[in-house]
Amino acid sequence: MLQHSLLRLIEQDRLRKLIESFTRATDITIDINDCLGYPVVYHECFYGFCKKVRSTKKGLKKCIESNADIGFKTKERRKAFIGPCFAGIALMGVPIVVDKAFHGSIVCGQFHLKPPTEKMISKMLSAMDEIGLNGHEMIEDFKNIKVIPKEKCKAVSELIEFIANYIAEIIYKNKIENELIRQKLRVMETNQTRVELEKALWISELKKLQSQIKPHFLFNTLNIISRLIIMNENHKALDTVYALSNIMRSSFEESDELISLEKEMDYVKNYLSIQKMRFGERLRFKIEIDDRLRGISIPALTIQPLVENACTHGIEPKEDLGEIIIQSQLAGNDVIIKIIDNGIGIPEEKLKEIHMYLTNDKDFYVASELDGSLGLKNVHRRLQLYFGSEYGLSITSRTGCTQVSVKLPYNS
């Protein structure tokens, strides 16, 4: 039953795109399994040795059983687990947990922890004989499987933990039926119950907004890693994976959606280091944060999506040097954080549309046709949910200069 629930809650195309992006970036393939161990989406990302194994009915069954076994191990331990598949290839899994309940697992494979030994090859030959394949014809494919030492597995595990976290947020978001809560609000007789339901609705909307930002950031970064690999910039690709891991490690350690401005700027610095891998000398950035403001509270992933917009829509189309400046200032009881870029600017008509889009109170979960506007609205709406309607974003732009200002309370 949970398998059908996951299939219903998460669009298959979105999961398939996520798996394809992960495989392109790392040469490692993942399966997303339900709590019974069955894959919730089928894909064609396996290649080489594993593809040949899965081409047979018995091989596919054994592969799914191996993935399921690793998934159950993550359920027992409530953390990442590494173990062999039936053919001796390394598998690594992480659990998908929501409200302390195990909803499934993500298992990645197609890698060795060390170059294959004669003992490993002997085990593989026995396994191939069991499923009716000629193992001797597959020895070269077995040897060509990517080798990732255990010390390097941490970066990979953090990537799949990020994906598991994203899926868990989608499940959580859909557990709270907004329309049902709104209907109950209309008929509730006690103020206490109404307050509790309004709080549940508020939390639900925040979770929806948060779940929109994270996969968008992940997809974009995986695409950067893929491009670097295609251009044979493998060292830069590895540095990018480490920078992404630093971002995700920090996000996992946070139990609250509100974090300090200093921690948010750590996200931004790691993100900009990723963009430097992409743009090289075409991008410069400067961060000027008032020391008095480093401890103030801000919703996680507030500044990073705005910097991402500046890179994508301002700097990328620009042929010469691009620069991003992040400044903060205290204005009475408010804090203003400015993200300024010297990109191509926003055309006047489009800027008017963005202003209308930000101030539109209608449900905006159906994506806008405006590039980047969903991220702007997302940040704007979360600031208003946390701090009130007088806070949020304001935008000015002309050719060669776009400024997005974030307004939030000083005593937050």
* CATH fold call of the largest domain: Heat Shock Protein 90
Provide the helix percentage.
40-55%
Strand content: 15-25%
Shape estimate: elongated
**CATH class term of the largest domain:** Alpha Beta
- Summing up helix and strand content along with how strands pair, one would put the structural category as alpha+beta
For the residues shown, what is the average pLDDT? 80
What is the first-to-last residue Cα distance? 43 Å
CA radius of gyration is 24 Å
Please mark out the parts with pLDDT under 50 across 5 or more consecutive residues, or reply none.
Answer: 362-371
Count of DSSP-assigned helices: 14
Order of helices and strands: HHEHHEEEHHEHHHHEHEEHEEHHEE
Count of individual domains: 2
Jot down its keywords.
12 strands; 5-stranded mixed sheet; Heat Shock Protein 90; elongated; 2 domains; 412 residues; Beta-Lactamase
Task: Describe, in short, the structure shown.
One of its GO terms (molecular function) is phosphorelay sensor kinase activity. With 412 residues, this protein is of the alpha+beta class.
Descriptive report:
Its EC number is 2.7.13.3. GO terms for molecular function: phosphorelay sensor kinase activity. Residues 298-412 form the Histidine kinase/HSP90-like ATPase domain. Helices cover 55% and strands 19% of the residues. It is of the alpha+beta class and 412 residues long. The chain has two domains: 2-149, Beta-Lactamase; 176-409, Histidine kinase-like ATPase, C-terminal domain (Heat Shock Protein 90). The protein is elongated. Residues 362-371 have low confidence and may be disordered.
